[in-house]
UniProtKB/TrEMBL annotation:
Statement: the UniProt record of this protein carries the keyword Hydrolase: yes
Keyword Hydrolase: yes
Enzyme superclass (EC): hydrolase
Taxonomic lineage: Eukaryota, Fungi, Dikarya, Ascomycota, Pezizomycotina
UniProt-listed Enzyme Commission number(s): 3.1.1.-
Organism: Dactylonectria macrodidyma
Protein's UniProt name: Carboxylic ester hydrolase
Length: 497
């Protein structure tokens, strides 16, 4: 253990001392006075604060994180504590040498985890988003960074009821970003060099913070953006609440505010809601056309993002798929041709439908955002992860795999190529966090397969992503794309694929 006398917190923090980094775990950054309340700033910290244990996460329907990631069953993931009112906490990971020989303030990455805004998909406690390795590598590269990973409210606890403030998860995260501005210098971090990063739902949140001009100079959006999960209209938000309320009533005389946590979780489980959403907010208006106040952006995707809908799509009748594509009207025939949709070819049609979901919610948004940032004359970097899952290579490079490769929280020595790709990814992310150019602005970067790192021109990019199809999608009205997407995707998403 190692202690830090923190000036602005007026507290002595005791963290976990490792070979080259120190972890300060479970630091509270906000208070929740009651269910669905707005988060409040903590004004006074105890004289001594034990930061040797991870803080509790928000209550949630339990899922097997290892299922999607193909983590072997014999690798038991820890059971993480949950607390509705104590889940606003964060971890700070810093180079150990910086505690004793701090010569200059270090750039900071703030990490927002994913999980469909429903669950914690990738905490440090699980090992999936353990920030130790990326901080260690930054030290070895001579480009040290500090990483802050935050917990926040999820599912109905963040969604609120009809009378509460909405988007409580965004408010929680905004409070954490304010905490970083006020207190990261006490850890040796530079509040003026903050990068906000997230994966999947974490990238959706990060994009929202970009639009609302949160205090950060640059952003990293991995496998997600507001294009993946646009702000939800009020009528649909109310319908989701009513569905949970309906199941609460089936369990007894309960409502959203009064029900015990265990009953709320059971109602959530019975509701079958797999994914939650940011709700419409005046601050998010015109989000599609905003680059905010951010100076730089990094956009990333994996080859098979659509694994999230795989099981649901494979159970779908081919007629349903064909009818969904027909919703594109006069563009339907060309859309079906490009995605190989044929009534008499069920397997090809299901694969094509998944390809469409992948392209319209991940690849097309990256193309649009890249163009928009270039038009605004702001630096934007685009990369692809095409490395194979180390435990099941036949699963390819799928949604969530970037967490395993990038953060290196598991022993991957049995897979030298994946291990090598992880080293390359961390190096390039660290360079970006240091405001360097990790690769040429006019090229895309590809991590993997087989441990390779390459820079791709547009022709090479087209060999790895369906850019011909994406260019056609770009000509369509977004309402047409959304209509086809909804007909194909609703009720099919799952982290258990």
């Amino acid at each position: 253990m190692l202690s830090l006398q923190h000036g602005s917190l007026q507290s002595t923090l005791t963290g976990i001392e490792m070979s080259s980094v120190v972890q300060f775990r479970g630091i509270p950054y906000g208070q929740i006075p009651e269910r669905f309340a707005q988060p409040q700033t903590i004004t006074t910290y105890p004289e001594r604060l034990d930061c040797t244990r991870y803080g509790p996460r928000c209550p949630q329907v339990p899922i097997d994180v290892g299922h999607l990631l193909r983590i072997p069953r014999e690798h038991a993931l820890p059971i993480e504590p949950e607390d509705e009112y104590q889940c606003l906490n964060l971890d700070v990971v810093i180079p150990k040498t910086h505690l004793t020989v701090a010569t200059k303030k270090l750039p900071v990455m703030v990490w927002i985890h994913g999980g469909s805004q429903a669950v914690t998909f990738g905490s440090a406690a699980s090992g999936v988003c353990d920030m130790t390795k990326i901080v260690e590598d930054s030290l070895h590269l001579g480009k040290s960074i500090i990483v802050v990973a935050i917990q926040y409210r999820l599912n109905i606890f963040a969604f609120g009821d009809d009378t509460s403030s909405k988007n409580l998860s965004l408010q929680d995260q905004a409070l954490a970003l304010k905490w970083v501005q006020n207190h990261i210098s006490g850890f040796g971090g530079d509040p003026n060099r903050v990068t906000v990063a997230g994966e999947s739902a974490g990238a959706v949140f990060s994009h929202a913070h970009l639009v609302t001009e949160a205090p950060a100079r640059q952003y990293i959006l991995s496998s997600g953006s507001l294009h993946l999960s646009p702000p939800l209209p009020q009528d649909k938000s109310s319908a989701m609440r009513q569905l949970v309320q309906k199941h609460l009533r089936g369990l007894g005389d309960y409502n959203l505010r009064s029900a015990p946590v265990s009953i709320v979780i059971e109602a959530l489980k019975q509701s079958g809601i797999q994914s939650w959403y940011i709700q419409e907010d005046p601050r998010l208006e015109n989000w599609q056309h905003s680059t905010g106040a951010a100076e730089r952006l990094l956009l990333s995707d994996v080859q098979n993002e659509a694994i999230l809908w795989h099981r649901g799509m494979w159970a779908t009748d081919t007629n349903v798929i064909v009818n969904a594509f027909d919703l594109a009207g006069e563009n339907g025939p060309e859309l079906k041709r490009l995605y190989n949709i044929h009534l008499e070819r069920p397997s090809a049609s299901k694969t094509g439908a998944l390809d469409f979901l992948n392209d319209c919610r991940f690849v097309l948004p990256i193309k649009k955002m890249t163009q928009m940032w270039r038009m605004a004359q702001k630096p934007v970097f685009r990369c692809l992860l095409d490395e194979l899952n180390p435990w099941q290579p036949s699963s390819g490079s799928h949604h969530g795999l970037d967490l395993i490769v990038l953060f290196g929280g598991f022993d991957l020595s049995f897979s030298p190529t994946v291990h090598k790709t992880g080293i390359q990814m961390r190096k390039k992310w660290i360079e970006f966090i240091h405001s360097e150019e990790p690769w040429s602005l006019d090229l895309s970067a590809a991590f993997g397969p087989w441990g390779e790192f390459r820079q791709l021109d547009d022709v090479a990019l087209g060999s790895r992503r369906r850019m011909r199809q994406v260019e056609f999608l770009e000509t369509l009205d977004h309402k047409v794309i959304d209509q086809v997407f909804m007909a194909l995707a609703v009720g099919k998403i799952s982290l258990l694929n």
